[in-house]
Amino acid sequence: MKIGLFIPCFMNELYPDVCMATLKILKKLNLEIDYPMSQTCCGQPMANSGCSKDIETLAKQFVETFKDYDYIVAPSGSCVTMVKEHYAPFFKNNSDYNKVKTSIYEVCEFLHDIIKIEYLDVSFPYKVGIHNSCHGHRMLKLGTPSELNIPYNSKLKNLLSLVKDIEIVTLQREDECCGFGGTFSVTEEDISVAMGKDRIKDHIDSQAQIITGADMSCLMHMDGIINRNKENIKVMHIVEILAGAKYE
């Protein structure tokens, strides 16, 4: 099993610790990991802004870069969704894209559904609230959308339950949007911030010390609001907790 590690561009620049935690947890599983140096942006920011010609260039670059791997794994549900759901118009039944589309996984999805890990030798003695990002939750099915009114299941929660000493708090709204939405947070700043404040308040009201999730973009948005308002809560990407990172 040869894994191509896809690191979203903003995470590479702003959150190298999360990127290294992703690599660490995959290497702990004795998987063959490769980081192709020709990788670049998946095109999601351009898609949010309607720049279709730029998306096509990036989509073809992505497929060419990752087509020969057994699996492609990334610590970002929204970027994975971009590849799986929004590249098709640029590929007419292309075999390379069809392979990439069925081979790419968000890291929690990969650990839960493909590797099916049952044990983690890590401890995290803190109260943690799970933020279910929209793309991962609904498009990748990392969790059960509340509007379906069926028994709730969360792959993120299942993975965190393997961590010793952790306390997962219950939120009032398990799958509410944080308001980020890429360029939505720029074009609709007031709405975006208001949604982020509501999401943070739910975690604070539930006495969480940490907000975690599978999309650093959502966590980045909430972290900015937390820092500006000097709230007593932190954000951590889920792979940091699973990989044994310390709370600071």
Automatic annotation (TrEMBL):
Gene Ontology annotations for the cellular component aspect, listed alphabetically: cytosol
Single GO MF annotation: oxidoreductase activity
Cysteine-rich domain sequence ranges: 4-84, 128-223
Pfam families: CCG
Identification of the protein by name: Fe-S oxidoreductase
